[in-house]
Amino acid sequence: MSKVKNAGAAGGNGLDINKPHEHGPGAPGGEPPAMEGALSGKIPMASLLTLVIGAFMAILDGSIVNVALPKMMAIFGVAADDVQWVMTAYLLTSGVVVPVTGYLGDRYGLKTMYIFSLLAFTAGSAVCGLAWSNSSLVVARVIQAVGGGMIMPVSMSMIYTIVPRDKIGMALGIWGIAAMAAPSIGPTLGGYLVDHFSWQWIFTINIPVGIAASFLAMFVLSETPRRADLKPDIPGTVFSTVACFALLLALSEGQNKGWTSLYIVNLFIISGFNFALFVIWELITPEPLLDITLLKNKTFSISLICLVIVTIGMFSVIFLIPLFAQSVQGYTPLQTGLMMMPMALTMGLMMPISGRLFDKIGALPLCVAGLTITVITTYHLHTITYNTSMRELQWLLVQRSFGLGLCMMPLTTAGMNTVPHFLIGRASAIGNLVRQISGSFGIAFLTYVMLHRQEYHAAWLADTVNWSSPVSAGVLQQVQNLLAQAGAGSQAGATAVLYALVRREAYISGIADAFIVSTIITALAIPLVFFLSKKRVEAQRAAEYRRYAHIMPPAGPPGSLEA
Known about the structure:
two-stranded antiparallel ribbon; Growth Hormone, Chain: A; 2 strands; globular; 21 helices
């Protein structure tokens, strides 16, 4: 197993930025690390797969629980608003803990934090399986989310620490299988476990996997350097916690409470105020929780913007297609999951392929091709109807996942590759926080679009389908005759059936309009990716190492591996 020689890989930015650092490559007068040549070596596959297991388990749990909510409502005897907190509590907690992962990884070591996150997630899963009420399950989900929220940013930071930069695309492609495939596999696995076993199994299945992953992490992973002198940023932590909690709560409750309600408006105000305080504080404190100055890196910032756009586009299918399949076509959760399985497998297959190509040709050609395919196929999704077959929809989703799998990893990696190695933990925390918020925003926004357009189409169809229309009168008479053959041929019954058909078509049209909006949003990323060419990324990386040369740890960039 390879041994990492770099002693500064996980160091934070808690050094005095006004004090020049005279050691190591990248110091004033020396050649920037980016100019020293490619850092090569082999991918430590055992360590990488250990990190993939944890990431897959954490992401899977975010989508596996949805299908069990109706069963929980019946068992615990609670309303839909109450059981929804099983999902909301996990979302809020996992979003809140993301910003602190950069500091914790620098302070205590990434291996230690990864093992802690696995154990917290596993313990939370065990308590979830033993829950005796809805309230106890919500508390258990909070415990579970503390670990689940940390796993993604910590594992990504560790990959950048242990993998040579010229192999990072391939490594993140393998790791990305978890991020891309797990959300689609979750409903299938959850539906199977709920139908054939019990709802507790969606949680207890994590226990053996979590224990095994923890033991693997103990023996396979190497600890990263710790910054014992790094002080916690208490005000920054408070500001970020309040801001993230209020924003995520507003996005998850906005549709139910009303976007213009006093409750939601106050949450947005609280979130915006605390975000402003957080930014101001992070710019003046010597040891910030998140290094906001990383956003001065144009390539990293453009990468984050593209990540927001593509995440919203990705969630349009993950959220809208199950609604269409179950509410319109009458599929069960298990059938819906099986329908989406080829999409997940295609995306998982494409991730390491796009990673290998990224290492050779950079992000630009992959992103242009992938986003173009994604835009075209997303637009085609607006043509789905009640008569669309499962195979036809599956093929369209597979084509779309091919494009997403081609561009998703390069979009993220291009920006991260420009960040100095000792700031990767902080950059990973920013990236994962952006992904968390954009996913919640995407679901909330597309839900609003779908429902708003559904009401519009329902009103338009109701005006069209009336007694003055000969076609409508004829259809109504045919429906009444069919009902009469079944012994229920009243005019009121025929009118109710026709109204239900109108509402169904309005619902389908609302989903179709949401896909058009998603297409437009995704297309906005295409001109931005031209700023992510390989030359621009390399030039930006060199510039960033020069910008941070005065706080560069003496060992230089990571990637120097010893067999």
